[in-house]
Amino acid sequence: MTLVASDIPHRRYNPLRQSWVLVSPHRAKRPWQGQQEEPTKDTKPEYDDKCYLCPRNARINGEMNPDYKDTFVFENDFSAVFEKTAEVEKVVEEAQKEHTESTALDLDLLRKEDVFGYCQVICFSPKHNVTLATMTVEQIEKVIETWQKMYTEAQSRGIKYSLIFENKGATMGCSNPHAHGQVWNTSIVPEEPQMEFDSLKKYKDEKNRDLLVDYVNLEMSKNERIVYQNASFLVVVPYWAVWPFETMIVSKERVSSIKKLTKEQVQHLADAISVITKKYDKLFNTSFPYSMGIHQSFVDVENCPYEHLRLLFYPPLLRSASVKKFQVGFEMLGMPQRDITAEGAAKRLYDL
């Protein structure tokens, strides 16, 4: 194999996590005889009478879904956390009585904290066979407006952090093919958004500038990793991306949370989501799997001077609809690693 400068392995710094990713471009040329996934074939009907999420159907707990016309939100029937009700508090109190004799070593190495909150499911559409990629911009606007309402509701229910996300496709462990997302509202801030918040705050405190505003302006000046942009949002493959076709939708001007978006910005965000999800589906001619999540201001901080709204897309596909990227070996035990450069991935997505 003849090496060129662009093949030389290097590591790239992620200022949001204050961590590094190893980039090994030459490995993209290696033959592949490993695991291959079956391409997703989209043959779902518009309505499935066996689907727990379709309108007018019964969910697993027996409750009937309404005949909803755009989005539908309900409390997750298998929530990852419980609300702090009188019943839950009684169980917690009884458990604490049984463990009153903790040693100093216990407190150092066997620490535990109770986490409270509630989880919700949001069906994006009444139609069983659509995805964000096949919905209109106007329909996606309805989804974003529902996210705004869910975030506002979390503020009234004493929540610390509201993590909005979507797992799309069986490859990502999605338990139901009807297009839907989730919101996990918790009494604690999860580690990833806390880590990124700390980095945003440190940058602002030290430089008196906003990290992601600087980054957006830098990417726009270089124009090497931009996939799409409109008046309010930039879609970019981050310089420090880990997943092969990872992207970030980031507001050009600092907006602390989805609640703060104007009507026009909601339209622009819907447009950006529509464009990138359609590009994903075109990349390998398949309904592209991914995990998408929104990082934004803590729910209990109305006007955070550090946070910057961003949507993160982590898709697992590597070379085709059937070849998946696995995080194993060096990635699990050493540090994140990627083969395809961020610039190469951005060009492929931009050209679609």
From TrEMBL:
GO BP terms: galactose catabolic process via UDP-galactose, Leloir pathway
Taxonomic superkingdom: Eukaryota
GO MF terms, alphabetically ordered: UDP-glucose:hexose-1-phosphate uridylyltransferase activity; zinc ion binding
Domain named Galactose-1-phosphate uridyl transferase N-terminal: residues: 5-190
Details of cofactor binding: Binds 1 zinc ion per subunit.
Gene3D superfamilies, A to Z: HIT-like (3.30.428.10)
One GO CC term on file: cytoplasm
Pfam families membership: GalP_UDP_tr_C (PF02744), GalP_UDP_transf (PF01087)
Coiled-coil region: none
Catalytic center residues: H180
Keywords from the UniProt entry: Carbohydrate metabolism, Metal-binding, Nucleotidyltransferase, Transferase, Zinc
Domain Galactose-1-phosphate uridyl transferase C-terminal: 197-351
Cofactor annotation: Zn(2+)
Binding annotation for Zn(2+): C51, C54, H128, H178
Family: Belongs to the galactose-1-phosphate uridylyltransferase type 1 family.
Full protein name: Galactose-1-phosphate uridylyltransferase
Organism in which the protein naturally occurs: Yarrowia lipolytica (strain CLIB 122 / E 150)
